[in-house]
Amino acid sequence: MSEIAQVAETIGTVRVALVTGASGGIGRAVAQRLAAEGMAVGVHYAGNKAAADETVAAIEAGGGRAVAVAGDVADEGATAAAFDAVERAFGGIDVVVHTAGVMVLGPVADYGLDAFDRLTRTNVRGTFVVAQQAARRVRAGGAVVTFSTSVTRLSFPGYAAYAASKGAVEALTPVLARELRGRDITVNTVAPGPTATPLFLEGKDGETIARLAAQPPLERLGTPDDIAETVAFLAGPGRWVNGQVLFANGGIA
Protein backbone atom coordinates (compact mmCIF):
# COMPACT_ATOMS: atom_id res chain seq x y z
CA MET A 1 0.00 0.00 0.00
CA SER A 2 1.33 3.45 -0.93
CA GLU A 3 1.99 6.09 1.72
CA ILE A 4 -0.91 8.24 0.48
CA ALA A 5 -3.27 5.26 0.58
CA GLN A 6 -2.11 4.53 4.13
CA VAL A 7 -3.03 8.09 5.11
CA ALA A 8 -6.49 7.56 3.64
CA GLU A 9 -6.91 4.31 5.56
CA THR A 10 -5.75 5.92 8.80
CA ILE A 11 -8.38 8.68 8.66
CA GLY A 12 -11.04 6.20 7.61
CA THR A 13 -12.10 7.87 4.39
CA VAL A 14 -10.94 8.35 0.83
CA ARG A 15 -9.00 11.55 0.40
CA VAL A 16 -10.28 13.95 -2.22
CA ALA A 17 -8.26 16.19 -4.55
CA LEU A 18 -9.27 19.03 -6.84
CA VAL A 19 -6.77 19.57 -9.66
CA THR A 20 -7.21 22.69 -11.79
CA GLY A 21 -6.10 22.60 -15.39
CA ALA A 22 -6.38 18.81 -15.34
CA SER A 23 -7.59 18.36 -18.91
CA GLY A 24 -4.02 17.99 -20.22
CA GLY A 25 -0.29 18.36 -19.66
CA ILE A 26 0.99 18.49 -16.11
CA GLY A 27 -2.52 18.82 -14.68
CA ARG A 28 -3.67 15.57 -16.28
CA ALA A 29 -0.56 13.74 -15.07
CA VAL A 30 -1.15 15.04 -11.54
CA ALA A 31 -4.81 14.03 -11.55
CA GLN A 32 -3.98 10.53 -12.75
CA ARG A 33 -1.15 10.14 -10.26
CA LEU A 34 -3.25 11.22 -7.28
CA ALA A 35 -6.02 8.88 -8.41
CA ALA A 36 -3.50 6.04 -8.62
CA GLU A 37 -2.53 6.86 -5.04
CA GLY A 38 -6.13 6.29 -3.92
CA MET A 39 -7.64 9.77 -4.06
CA ALA A 40 -10.96 10.68 -5.61
CA VAL A 41 -10.24 13.53 -8.03
CA GLY A 42 -12.08 16.58 -9.28
CA VAL A 43 -10.76 17.12 -12.81
CA HIS A 44 -11.07 20.85 -13.44
CA TYR A 45 -11.04 22.37 -16.91
CA ALA A 46 -11.62 25.83 -18.36
CA GLY A 47 -12.96 25.13 -21.84
CA ASN A 48 -11.98 21.71 -23.14
CA LYS A 49 -14.65 19.41 -21.73
CA ALA A 50 -13.77 16.57 -24.07
CA ALA A 51 -10.18 16.51 -22.81
CA ALA A 52 -11.34 16.63 -19.19
CA ASP A 53 -13.72 13.74 -19.86
CA GLU A 54 -10.76 11.80 -21.29
CA THR A 55 -8.87 12.35 -18.03
CA VAL A 56 -11.88 11.18 -16.04
CA ALA A 57 -12.25 8.11 -18.26
CA ALA A 58 -8.56 7.23 -17.85
CA ILE A 59 -8.85 7.48 -14.08
CA GLU A 60 -12.00 5.37 -13.99
CA ALA A 61 -10.44 2.79 -16.30
CA GLY A 62 -7.71 2.37 -13.68
CA GLY A 63 -10.28 1.77 -10.96
CA GLY A 64 -10.31 5.30 -9.60
CA ARG A 65 -13.05 7.84 -8.98
CA ALA A 66 -13.21 11.19 -10.75
CA VAL A 67 -15.59 13.92 -11.82
CA ALA A 68 -15.09 16.73 -14.32
CA VAL A 69 -15.80 20.28 -13.11
CA ALA A 70 -15.57 23.48 -15.13
CA GLY A 71 -14.84 27.13 -14.54
CA ASP A 72 -12.65 30.16 -15.08
CA VAL A 73 -10.18 30.08 -12.18
CA ALA A 74 -10.11 33.88 -12.03
CA ASP A 75 -13.90 34.05 -11.58
CA GLU A 76 -14.71 33.63 -7.91
CA GLY A 77 -18.26 32.41 -8.58
CA ALA A 78 -17.19 29.81 -11.11
CA THR A 79 -14.35 28.61 -8.89
CA ALA A 80 -16.62 28.34 -5.86
CA ALA A 81 -19.05 26.33 -7.97
CA ALA A 82 -16.25 23.94 -9.01
CA PHE A 83 -15.33 23.40 -5.35
CA ASP A 84 -19.02 22.88 -4.55
CA ALA A 85 -19.31 20.23 -7.26
CA VAL A 86 -16.35 18.26 -5.93
CA GLU A 87 -17.68 18.45 -2.38
CA ARG A 88 -21.09 17.21 -3.52
CA ALA A 89 -19.52 14.34 -5.44
CA PHE A 90 -17.08 13.14 -2.79
CA GLY A 91 -18.03 14.73 0.54
CA GLY A 92 -15.17 17.20 1.01
CA ILE A 93 -11.77 18.30 -0.24
CA ASP A 94 -8.37 17.39 1.21
CA VAL A 95 -5.95 18.45 -1.52
CA VAL A 96 -6.04 21.34 -3.97
CA VAL A 97 -3.48 21.39 -6.79
CA HIS A 98 -3.59 24.50 -8.94
CA THR A 99 -1.83 23.84 -12.24
CA ALA A 100 -4.00 26.05 -14.46
CA GLY A 101 -2.13 28.89 -16.10
CA VAL A 102 -1.28 30.64 -19.34
CA MET A 103 2.04 31.61 -20.89
CA VAL A 104 2.45 34.44 -23.37
CA LEU A 105 6.06 35.26 -24.20
CA GLY A 106 7.70 38.39 -25.54
CA PRO A 107 10.28 41.06 -24.69
CA VAL A 108 9.28 43.76 -22.23
CA ALA A 109 9.74 46.57 -24.78
CA ASP A 110 7.22 45.05 -27.21
CA TYR A 111 4.89 43.17 -24.88
CA GLY A 112 1.20 43.94 -25.41
CA LEU A 113 -0.54 45.14 -22.28
CA ASP A 114 -3.73 43.31 -23.24
CA ALA A 115 -1.71 40.09 -23.19
CA PHE A 116 -0.16 41.12 -19.88
CA ASP A 117 -3.59 41.71 -18.36
CA ARG A 118 -4.86 38.34 -19.59
CA LEU A 119 -1.79 36.55 -18.27
CA THR A 120 -1.90 38.17 -14.84
CA ARG A 121 -5.65 37.64 -14.57
CA THR A 122 -5.22 33.89 -14.93
CA ASN A 123 -1.86 33.36 -13.25
CA VAL A 124 -2.08 35.84 -10.36
CA ARG A 125 -5.77 36.48 -9.74
CA GLY A 126 -6.64 32.89 -10.64
CA THR A 127 -4.12 31.52 -8.16
CA PHE A 128 -5.39 33.86 -5.46
CA VAL A 129 -9.03 32.90 -6.06
CA VAL A 130 -8.24 29.17 -5.97
CA ALA A 131 -6.07 29.62 -2.86
CA GLN A 132 -8.86 31.57 -1.19
CA GLN A 133 -11.38 28.79 -1.76
CA ALA A 134 -8.83 26.20 -0.65
CA ALA A 135 -8.15 28.13 2.56
CA ARG A 136 -11.86 28.08 3.35
CA ARG A 137 -12.53 24.45 2.51
CA VAL A 138 -9.55 22.08 2.72
CA ARG A 139 -9.91 19.65 5.61
CA ALA A 140 -7.37 19.10 8.37
CA GLY A 141 -4.46 16.99 7.20
CA GLY A 142 -4.75 18.43 3.72
CA ALA A 143 -2.45 20.19 1.30
CA VAL A 144 -2.50 23.09 -1.14
CA VAL A 145 -0.05 22.99 -4.04
CA THR A 146 0.32 25.88 -6.48
CA PHE A 147 2.60 26.23 -9.49
CA SER A 148 5.40 28.61 -10.35
CA THR A 149 8.30 28.13 -12.80
CA SER A 150 12.07 27.77 -12.61
CA VAL A 151 12.23 30.73 -15.00
CA THR A 152 11.87 32.97 -11.94
CA ARG A 153 15.52 32.01 -11.31
CA LEU A 154 16.73 31.30 -14.85
CA SER A 155 15.71 34.72 -16.22
CA PHE A 156 15.28 33.62 -19.83
CA PRO A 157 14.74 36.60 -22.18
CA GLY A 158 11.13 36.88 -23.29
CA TYR A 159 9.75 35.40 -20.08
CA ALA A 160 9.50 38.62 -18.03
CA ALA A 161 5.70 38.81 -17.82
CA TYR A 162 5.29 35.10 -17.19
CA ALA A 163 8.04 35.01 -14.56
CA ALA A 164 6.61 38.09 -12.85
CA SER A 165 3.19 36.45 -12.59
CA LYS A 166 4.73 33.32 -11.10
CA GLY A 167 6.84 35.38 -8.70
CA ALA A 168 3.55 36.57 -7.24
CA VAL A 169 2.53 32.95 -6.70
CA GLU A 170 5.79 32.28 -4.85
CA ALA A 171 5.19 35.30 -2.60
CA LEU A 172 1.71 34.04 -1.71
CA THR A 173 2.89 30.59 -0.59
CA PRO A 174 4.64 31.24 2.76
CA VAL A 175 2.05 33.83 3.76
CA LEU A 176 -0.86 31.43 3.26
CA ALA A 177 1.04 28.66 5.04
CA ARG A 178 1.34 30.90 8.09
CA GLU A 179 -2.27 32.07 7.88
CA LEU A 180 -3.37 28.42 8.10
CA ARG A 181 -1.45 27.87 11.34
CA GLY A 182 -3.17 25.36 13.61
CA ARG A 183 -5.24 23.71 10.87
CA ASP A 184 -2.71 21.00 9.85
CA ILE A 185 -2.73 22.11 6.19
CA THR A 186 0.48 22.49 4.18
CA VAL A 187 0.93 25.06 1.42
CA ASN A 188 3.71 24.69 -1.13
CA THR A 189 4.58 25.69 -4.67
CA VAL A 190 6.18 23.50 -7.34
CA ALA A 191 8.42 25.31 -9.83
CA PRO A 192 9.10 23.05 -12.83
CA GLY A 193 11.96 23.54 -15.20
CA PRO A 194 11.61 22.94 -18.94
CA THR A 195 8.98 20.21 -19.20
CA ALA A 196 7.75 18.49 -22.34
CA THR A 197 4.17 19.77 -22.40
CA PRO A 198 2.23 21.40 -25.25
CA LEU A 199 2.38 24.72 -23.38
CA PHE A 200 6.19 24.60 -23.22
CA LEU A 201 6.84 23.16 -26.69
CA GLU A 202 4.54 25.55 -28.56
CA GLY A 203 6.46 27.92 -30.81
CA LYS A 204 9.92 26.42 -30.13
CA ASP A 205 12.06 24.94 -32.88
CA GLY A 206 14.02 21.71 -32.53
CA GLU A 207 17.31 23.47 -31.88
CA THR A 208 15.85 25.46 -28.99
CA ILE A 209 14.28 22.38 -27.45
CA ALA A 210 17.53 20.42 -27.74
CA ARG A 211 19.49 23.26 -26.13
CA LEU A 212 17.10 23.46 -23.19
CA ALA A 213 17.08 19.67 -22.79
CA ALA A 214 20.88 19.66 -22.55
CA GLN A 215 21.08 22.18 -19.72
CA PRO A 216 20.13 20.03 -16.68
CA PRO A 217 22.82 17.62 -15.43
CA LEU A 218 20.35 14.84 -16.23
CA GLU A 219 20.42 16.05 -19.85
CA ARG A 220 16.76 15.81 -20.72
CA LEU A 221 13.53 17.74 -20.47
CA GLY A 222 11.28 17.01 -17.56
CA THR A 223 8.09 15.06 -18.14
CA PRO A 224 4.61 15.64 -16.70
CA ASP A 225 5.08 12.44 -14.70
CA ASP A 226 8.23 13.89 -13.09
CA ILE A 227 6.20 16.85 -11.86
CA ALA A 228 3.28 14.68 -10.78
CA GLU A 229 5.72 12.68 -8.63
CA THR A 230 6.71 15.87 -6.82
CA VAL A 231 3.08 16.87 -6.28
CA ALA A 232 2.20 13.42 -4.95
CA PHE A 233 4.94 13.79 -2.34
CA LEU A 234 3.68 17.19 -1.22
CA ALA A 235 0.07 15.99 -1.22
CA GLY A 236 0.84 12.91 0.84
CA PRO A 237 3.92 11.97 2.85
CA GLY A 238 5.68 15.35 2.63
CA ARG A 239 3.99 16.77 5.71
CA TRP A 240 7.11 18.49 7.05
CA VAL A 241 7.54 20.54 3.89
CA ASN A 242 5.47 23.71 4.30
CA GLY A 243 5.58 27.24 2.94
CA GLN A 244 8.23 26.30 0.38
CA VAL A 245 8.92 26.66 -3.33
CA LEU A 246 10.21 23.30 -4.57
CA PHE A 247 12.20 23.48 -7.81
CA ALA A 248 11.58 20.36 -9.88
CA ASN A 249 13.98 20.93 -12.74
CA GLY A 250 16.62 18.18 -12.85
CA GLY A 251 19.28 20.48 -11.42
CA ILE A 252 19.09 23.21 -14.07
CA ALA A 253 19.12 25.89 -11.34
Kindly describe this structure.
It is a single chain. This protein is globular. It is α/β, with parallel strands linked by helices and 253 residues long. Mean pLDDT is 93; it is low at 3-12. 49% of the residues lie in helices and 14% in strands. Helix 3 links the parallel strand 2 and strand 3 (66-70). It has one domain (3-244): NAD(P)-binding Rossmann-like Domain (Rossmann fold). The longest helix has 25 residues, at 113-137.
SS elements, strand count: 7
CATH class: Alpha Beta
Put simply, the count of helices is 10
Distance between the termini: 34 Å
Descriptive terms for the model:
disordered N terminus, globular, 10 helices, 7-stranded parallel beta sheet, alpha/beta, 253 residues
Task: Give a summary of the structure in a few sentences.
The protein has 253 residues and is an alpha/beta fold. Helix content is 49%, strand content 14%.
Set down the secondary structure blueprint.
Blueprint: H1 3-11, E1 16-20, H2 25-36, E2 40-45, H3 49-61, E3 66-70, H4 76-90, E4 95-98, H5 113-137, E5 143-147, H6 151-154, H7 160-179, E6 186-192, H8 198-201, H9 206-214, H10 224-235, E7 245-248
Parallel strand pairs: 1-2, 1-4, 2-3, 4-5, 5-6, 6-7
Helix pairs in contact: 2-3, 2-10, 4-5, 5-7
